[in-house]
Amino acid sequence: MKKVEIFTDGGCKGNPGPGGYGCIIKQNGDIREIKGGHPQTTNNIMEMTAAIVALKQIQDPCEIKLTTDSQYVVKGVTEWMKGWIRNGWKTASRQPVKNQELWQELHELNQRHTITWIWVKGHNGHPENERCDELANEAIAEL
Length: 143
Fold this sequence. Notes:
The protein is an alpha/beta fold. It has a single domain, classed as Nucleotidyltransferase, domain 5 (2-Layer Sandwich). It contains four helices and five strands, in the order βββαβααβα. β1 and β2 form a beta hairpin. The longest helix is centred in the middle third of the chain and has 16 residues, at 71-86.
């Protein structure tokens, strides 16, 4: 199975407010950067969007290491999602899961690949995380 490294970050100026995301995809010696934004969004939506956009670039099933500074994304996929699915996309308190459509898309993409979800502390000198943050901020500035 092919191996891919993905790094993602998302952020907002205000929450909600203008937001952006950045992704780096390393595959077969190639490095690709992607960025995008939305004029009115949230930090969590941009973090999830970064992972979705990056994963959608990978067509064939691959072994992926996805690194993000979003505990919301990592815990959502690795800890919370099973319960949400079991409960019909409701939280433990029986409330609808926020950002359900994005979580469902992440779930589908997570099934397509073998993904190791890795959390790193943001703004802590991790080169790819810092670059993804720059891309996200560039996308916000271009809105």
